[in-house]
Write a structure and sequence with these properties.
The structure holds two protein chains of two kinds.
Chain A: H1 3-19, H2 24-37, E1 44-48, E2 51-55, E3 63-66, H3 74-88, H4 94-106, H5 113-130, H6 138-159, H7 162-182, H8 189-197, H9 203-214, H10 218-243
Helix pairs in contact in A: 1-2, 1-4, 2-3, 3-4, 5-6, 5-8, 6-7, 6-8, 7-8, 7-10, 9-10
Chain B: H1 3-20, H2 28-49, H3 52-74, H4 79-86, H5 92-103, H6 107-138
Classes of the chains: A mainly alpha, B mainly alpha.
């Protein structure tokens, strides 16, 4: 068996999962399982949100990969998980698994942007009612939520600074809601803003941060917690900026 | 508001979040179901006790249990189901109110809201972890040996 390819395969799987937003403990677990099925029993990995260090054991060299972009892509996690499962049950060979991982890396499996914006808008409307808002405010929440999500996605793509994108998005949401209420299209300013801001809330980061902390991965847990705090702060600051006038 | 409407809306919201987080197409329906069970669990308990912290714990517990069952059933990572389900429980309203009172220079009320938001986040985390531990104990396998000696 080609050991260098086996090491690359483990690292690629780990990087893909981490970039797609998997929990750190799951990434380490997957890499360890793969390494064991690829006859690297002494392998160790150290996974953080910004890079993975993988030591396959002597006589092979320790390798490191950098993780520069992180997003949420649950389908990618599921696909990589399936590849690792097939590899460890012996259903597929190493070269096959590696090809499959390369294919997953290149493939763009995201839903189209218009559908994402549409579902963010619908979810905003649903949250407004779940949080005991009135049905009359639903159109404004749908408008504000959809626009806010679009602004966040567009600015994140353009500037690559997440904090700025989220700040501007919640600013736009608060402005739309404010004008909607002052021109009589909406009734409760608070409820409209809370409902529309929901698609921006860092739910995955919060859950993952806590899960990682509880699993004993303190470095990843704290850094993901910091990312979640920064995002919440950006959202809060954007809303507060409008409310303060 | 009727329970039926609540169920439909929380299902739709979690389904929408499944699309935003790019959950696998076939799993979207189950993402919605997980979100619905979490929200209904939260709402039922909230009607009984009126305490947001305890009900958030129970809601997150329900989310994790249902997500784990689906994860076992479809052999998919649990995170696919739990992420979208947890979103309706996030204390967005509390955090918003805290922010609003800070802007209005009413720091005492702001701290009240902020600490409640913090407590709710902690309760959600505890619910998730408790459910996972209990399920792991229930479904414990006999042969998860990663280091085989030979």
């Amino acid at each position: 068996m080609d050991k260098e390819l086996a090491i690359d395969c483990c690292l690629l799987a780990g990087r893909l999962m981490m970039e797609a937003g998997a929990e750190t403990y799951r990434v380490e677990d997957t890499m360890k399982r793969m390494a064991n099925s690829l006859e690297l029993p002494a392998a160790h990995s150290f996974v953080t949100p910004t890079g993975i260090i993988f030591s396959p054991g002597s006589p092979h060299h320790t390798k490191l990969v950098q993780i520069s972009k992180r997003s949420t892509d649950l389908e990618k996690i599921a696909l990589v998980n399936a590849v690792s499962r097939k590899l460890s049950t012996g259903q597929s060979a190493l070269s096959e698994a590696y090809q499959e991982l390369l294919h997953i890396e290149k493939a763009n499996v995201m839903f189209p942007m218009w559908l994402q914006i549409f579902s963010a808008a619908i979810a905003s409307g649903c949250f407004l009612i779940l949080l005991e808002g009135s049905w009359k405010d639903v159109p404004m929440a749908i408008l504000a939520g959809g626009t806010g999500f679009t602004v966040a996605a567009f600015l994140d793509d353009l500037t690559r600074v997440k904090f700025f994108a989220e700040f501007m998005a919640s600013l736009v949401i608060a402005l739309i809601s404010f004008f909607a209420v002052s021109f009589g299209f909406g009734q409760e300013l608070d409820k409209i803003i809370i409902g529309s801001v929901m698609p921006l809330v860092p739910g995955l980061l919060i859950t993952n941060a806590v899960r990682d902390l509880m699993a004993g991965h303190f470095v990843s847990g704290l850094s993901k917690g910091a990312e979640a705090f920064l995002t919440s702060f950006a959202i809060g600051a954007g809303v507060a900026f409008v409310l303060s006038f | 508001m009727s329970w039926f409407v609540q169920a439909i809306l929380s299902f739709l919201a979690a389904f929408g979040f499944g699309i935003i987080f790019n959950a696998p197409r076939k799993m979207l329906f189950y993402c919605g179901f997980v979100g619905m069970s979490g929200w209904l669990g939260y709402k039922v308990f909230h009607n009984i006790t009126g305490d947001a912290v305890q009900s958030s714990f129970l809601g997150a517990f329900a989310v994790a249990v249902v997500a784990h069952l689906f994860a076992k059933r479809f052999r998919t990572p649990m995170i696919v189901f739990s992420v979208a389900g947890i979103i309706p429980l996030v204390p967005g309203g509390m955090a918003y109110n805290a922010m609003r009172h800070i802007v209005e220079n009413d720091y005492l009320s702001a701290i009240t809201f902020a600490s409640e938001a913090f407590m709710i986040s902690g309760a959600i985390a505890m619910g998730l972890v408790f459910a996972e531990v209990i399920i792991q104990l229930a479904f414990r396998k006999r042969t998860p040996r990663f280091y085989t000696k030979n």
